[in-house]
Specification:
The strands form 3 sheets. A 4-stranded antiparallel sheet has the order 1-6-7-5. It has a 4-stranded antiparallel sheet with strand order 2-3-4-8. It has a two-stranded antiparallel sheet with strand order 9-10. The chain folds into 2 domains: 166 residues, Helicase, Ruva Protein, domain 3 (Orthogonal Bundle), CATH 1.10.8.50; 120 residues, MutM-like, N-terminal (N-terminal domain of MutM-like DNA repair proteins), CATH 3.20.190.10. The chain is of the alpha+beta class and 307 residues long.
Length: 307
């Protein structure tokens, strides 16, 4: 099924409900309650791609900070460091968006509920619109974060920044291989899902996508990482890659607050096979999906398909 066909599935079986920003919460009958989930790698990559064509090559006029009390307080020096700087490119490291300018980068983390939107013309402020990156000639990138768990930092050398320097390889990069996963898993008793969510092992595989990847691999989320065969680890690597690539292609997952840089929600919610489907029939075998808690996070799995 292509992307256009998948989006058509939004019509009859689904309904919309209000959510943060400009997005809508696409919900199935078994997922009527609102969910809180932080933007993960596909959401950040979707934001990066959406903003890239709109702001690269533009010059920052000023940074307007209305609410500095984010996860880490926005430094008072940040506007001065960005004024007059040309945006050379947009990058991503894990869940961090890198707005690269001359002499450094603005590191943006969306936290649990944040999003960035490009505004071509002035718009009335909404609740939780905390920061604007205003551009010379008009337009701005607006940061909205209801929970204020996001953050903004300036780094002259982002690869050395304390938030980035110890991160593991990118899951879609060449370094994330079955050899690498086998080596990092050797002798480990930690659950494979927790292992995948450890940013020092592999960066950017959050709760939703770890659950979905392990379902595709047929591996139980609580299985000890060090006791999984190489063949099954190969399926885990393939599952992680496939889920993330598909989610990026569909614009990420809108559960409650996330919208992309163009203000539109992500559509991967339509493709979730286990996440938040407790009690629903597995689409492969019909067994009811189960829910457990790992590391204070909900895990969903099929007890028959995942062993």
């Amino acid at each position: 099924m292509n992307i256009a066909d998948r989006r058509k599935r939004l019509q009859a079986p689904f309904h919309t409900a209000p959510c943060g920003g400009l997005g809508a919460c696409w919900q199935r009958p078994w997922a009527a309650r609102k969910l809180a989930s932080m933007p993960e790698l596909p959401e950040v990559e979707t934001t990066r791609r959406g903003l890239e064509r709109l702001i690269v090559g533009r010059t920052i006029e000023t940074l307007v900070v209305r609410e500095p009390r984010l996860r880490w307080r926005v430094p008072q020096s940040l506007p001065a460091r960005l004024e007059g700087k040309r945006i050379s490119s947009l990058g991503r490291r894990g869940k961090y968006l890198l707005i690269n300018v001359t002499e450094g980068s603005l590191l943006v983390h969306l936290g649990m509920s944040g999003h960035l939107r490009f505004l071509a013309a002035p718009e009335a402020l909404r609740v939780h619109d905390h920061v604007d990156v205003r551009l010379v000639g008009g337009g701005c990138v607006r940061f909205n974060d209801p929970r204020r768990f996001g953050s903004l930092h300036f780094a002259a050398h982002p690869e050395r920044h304390r938030l980035l320097k110890d991160l593991g390889p990118e899951p879609l990069g060449e370094d994330f291989t079955v050899d690498y996963l086998a080596e990092t898993s050797r002798g480990r008793r930690v659950a494979i899902k927790q292992h995948l969510m450890n940013s020092r092992v592999v960066v950017g595989v959050g709760n939703i996508y770890a659950s979905e990847a392990l379902f595709r691999a047929g591996v139980h989320p609580a299985h000890a990482a060090g006791r999984i065969s190489r063949t099954r680890l190969e399926r885990v690597v393939a599952g992680v890659r496939a889920v993330l690539e598909e989610a990026i292609g569909l614009g990420g997952t809108t559960l409650r607050d996330f919208v992309g840089g163009d203000g539109r929600p992500g559509y991967f919610k339509l493709e979730l096979r286990v996440y938040d489907r407790e009690g629903a029939a597995c689409e492969q075998c019909g067994t009811p999906i189960r829910r457990t808690v790992q590391g204070q996070r909900a895990s969903y799995y099929c007890p028959r398909c995942q062993r």
